[in-house]
Amino acid sequence: MLQFQNLTLIHQKDQFRLVDSLTGVVHPGDKVAIIGEEGTGKSSLLKWLCRCPEVNDYLEAQGSYQCTFQQIGYLPQFLPNKEEPLSVYDFLFHNLDANEIDYSYLAKLASDFQLDQDFLYSNQEMGTLSGGQKIKIQLMKILLHHPDILLLDEPSNDLDYESIQWLENFIRTSDLAILYISHDVVLLKNTATSILHLEKIAHQQRAVVHFVKEDYQTYIEQRKSAADKQLQIALKQRSEDKKRNAQLQQVKQKVQHQLRTTKLDTKGRLLAKKMANLKSREKRFEKERAQFAEMPQQEEAIGLKWQTVQAVPSSKPLIHLENDQLKIADKILVEPLDFTFFGQEKVGIVGNNGIGKSLFLHKIAEMLQKRTDIQMKYMPQNYFEALDTTQSPVAYLLSQTKQDQATVTTYLGSLQFFVQEMQRPIAYLSGGQRAKLVILGLLLSQANVLLLDEPTRNLSPTSNQVLTQQLQQYNGTLLTVSHDRYFLEQVCEKIYQLDKTGLQRIF
Fold first, then answer.
1. Where does the ABC transporter domain lie (predicted)?
2. What is the reported pLDDT for 346?
3. Strands, E assignment, 307-430
């Protein structure tokens, strides 16, 4: 059992409350979905619960917390840097007694995740795996230790469709308590039995926690219904108050005028008494006003507007591959590889984990970087490749663009970064905030060719929708890898499936 009583997590640097007064209980078998916009403290909460040493550098805790679970399994949002050089074999079986390993269970997990069993014993470094392969291997390692509670940070990130189906079924049917962060609406609808919603409202200055024993769909519908009802009540109260206050002021002005002009003592006394009654009523209105229903406060959507760029002519070929191949070291992943890419096209790439989608995008990026007739920008799947995590968001954008600090700060504010976050090292930002930062750098660069590797993977549904709408309107050229079918169908005019025999157009 996990029990929270007014648990509050405070960022030590600026004393901002990431989590404020969390109270509730998690029982065995509960499936608690942790939701919220980017930067609301979701990952920090999971790290604190599993006692990750890194949170001691920036988090202070107040309130009480009790855990009776014996074995916690924690999946971080990103594979730790120190584990990237490890081989798959060393990563999986380090600290495991060979006699204690359930090999039949291991074989079942490999089958569920569509991994060759020989791959589990390979010397390939973890850092060279695809994003989906990293998630699968980490989940397998966690499950081999037989935890009684799981803390999963974006577990569906980078997984292919079949693996997401397995993950969904596992979460839904498991007897374990599972707390998981996700922006995958379908996964949330099909698995959650409780919702822990972290928000920042009042222009990102106040943290609010909602912890309810409801499924995701019910929570969202009731939240909207309650907000709509509260808004109607609040608007009606303010409208009626405005009318009665206007009437009161009219009467007051009339009485004041009569007081100034009357010369009769008796009438003056009556008018003075009437004015006292009016002022008493005014004070009563003020007290009633303090009891009015608050206007609903919810998180604001990000403000993102892609500017018009100097488009590459649609007749201009950017890439032409014929009988090419994709390979890692001496291992050929895809052959033959044929691909032609023109200006102003918007093309999506899908495929199973480990087939080489990110490798393909990186190959294209290297080819396009050599060209001087276009302005290309590349968003890697691993944000650390694009970001210096010792820099602040402001410093990063100043180094990447020609914008001044005031402009950069304004843009960051429109993406719901509050002032303190703009000056913190990027290392302290959430995955979603890092994604927004990289995307903002692309926007400000005025690039007319974009290569995006899983651009929506760490974004909330709200931010995802904004990015999708903006890329629909983007007049430049786009090549993107994604497992987000909705994003692909809304943005891309062509979608290709990558497998070991090459690229096949499916849309």
1. 2-225
2. 98
3. 317-328, 331-342, 346-350, 376-379
Contact predicate 351/496, CB 8 Å: no
Nearest to 346 by CA among 307, 305, 312: 312
Look up residue 67 and give its amino acid: C
Contact between 132 and 353 under an 8 Å Cβ cutoff? The reply is: yes
Give the tens place of pLDDT for each residue, 48-103.
999 888 888 889 999 999 999 999 999 999 999 999 999 999 999 988 888 888 89
Give the DSSP H or E segment for 26.
strand 17-26
Residues 500/334, Cβ–Cβ less than 8 Å? yes
What are 453's two structure tokens? 């590797």
Handedness of CA 260, 262, 265, 266 (dihedral sign): negative
Question: Can you tell me whether residue 358 is helix, strand or coil?
Answer: helix
Express each pLDDT in 407-431 by its tens digit: 999 999 999 898 888 999 999 899 9
| Domain range 317-505, CATH class | alpha beta
Report the distance separating Cα 58 and Cα 392, nearest Å.
16
Identity at 467, one-letter amino acid code: L
Which token pair is 428?
Answer: 């302290």
pLDDT in tens, 251-293: 899 988 888 888 777 777 888 888 899 899 989 989 888 888 7
State the Cα torsion 377-379-385-390 to the nearest 10°.
90
Question: How far from the centroid of its chain's Cα atoms is residue 165's Cα?
Answer: 21
Mean pLDDT of the chain, nearest integer: 92
How many CA atoms lie within 13 Å of 17's alpha carbon, on the beta-carbon side? 18
Q: Are 321 and 340 in contact (CB under 8 A)?
A: yes
Asked if 180 and 150 count as a contact pair (C-beta separation under 8 A), the reply is: yes
Q: What does the DSSP assignment read for 53-110?
A: GGGGGTEEEEEEEEE--S-EEEE-SS--GGGTTSBHHHHHHTT--GGG--HHHHHHHH
Cβ 182 vs Cβ 205: under 8 Å: no
DSSP class of residue 121 equals G
Q: Sort 504 into a burial class: Cβ within 10 Å, 0-12 / 13-18 / 19+.
A: exposed
- pLDDT score for 205: 75
pLDDT tens profile 100-145: 888 999 999 999 888 999 999 999 999 999 999 999 999 999 999 9
Q: Distance from first CA to last CA of the chain, Å, rounded?
A: 48
Q: Which CATH superfamily is domain 2-223 in?
A: P-loop containing nucleotide triphosphate hydrolases (3.40.50.300)
Is the pTM here over 0.90, yes or no? no
Helical ranges in 375-460 per DSSP H: 393-400, 405-414, 419-423, 431-445
What is the full DSSP assignment across 154-196?
STTTT--HHHHHHHHHHHHH-SSEEEEE---HHHHHHH-SEEE
